[in-house]
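Lab manual, section 2.4: Encoding a predicted structure.

Procedure: take the sequence of the chain (205 residues), apply the prediction step described in section 2.3, and record the output as structure tokens. A sample record is shown.
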Amino acid sequence: MTNPRNVHLVDDDEAIRHSASFMLRHSGYTVKTYKDGVTFLNEAGPEDTGCILLDVRMPVMDGLAVQQALTQHGIDMPVIVLTGHGDVSVAVQAMKAGAIDFLEKPYEKNQLVGSIQKAFEQIENKVAHGQREAEAKAQLAGLTPRERDVLDRLVEGLTNKSIAEDLNISARTVEIHRANLMDKLGADSLSAALKTAFSAGLGFE
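Recorded output:
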């Protein structure tokens, strides 16, 4: 799965915007720069993809305030915070608020690219997780109501005997339903069937 390699650079320092965007474009990224947090929030939206490089020390609206406003604007992109010397406490606050990494200025090219690669790996994992969840839900939709009853109880950790007693059916009938549901889920073991159930969100309600 490949995603557009977009980087949104939010920094009030024009020299940093210029040097960082030049560096990243040469590393194969598409870079869009913003002179401050307000401009970024006005121009970016839920449809935008990629990651955000966010300076914490900016006039009008600092990086932490921008970070907090992302959810309200429906923007769901991983954030890498850019800090100056002595901003460790601010960086910690940003990490607690969901930033995946922070870089202290001046940063090296390999540090910057490494952090951005980490952000894109997170995006890839999120996309893959969403696909697995959708596939698992589609598989579960193919089960009969009784097969779903059996699977729900397998997720709870019940044995065939306990499931039979709970559903007021024979243990042999439970075995048949269990074999059928595993066949429909393409599972060659109880572990594989449970993984599909967990991917679809069963057991987390």
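Check your result against the sample. The chain has a mean pLDDT of 90.
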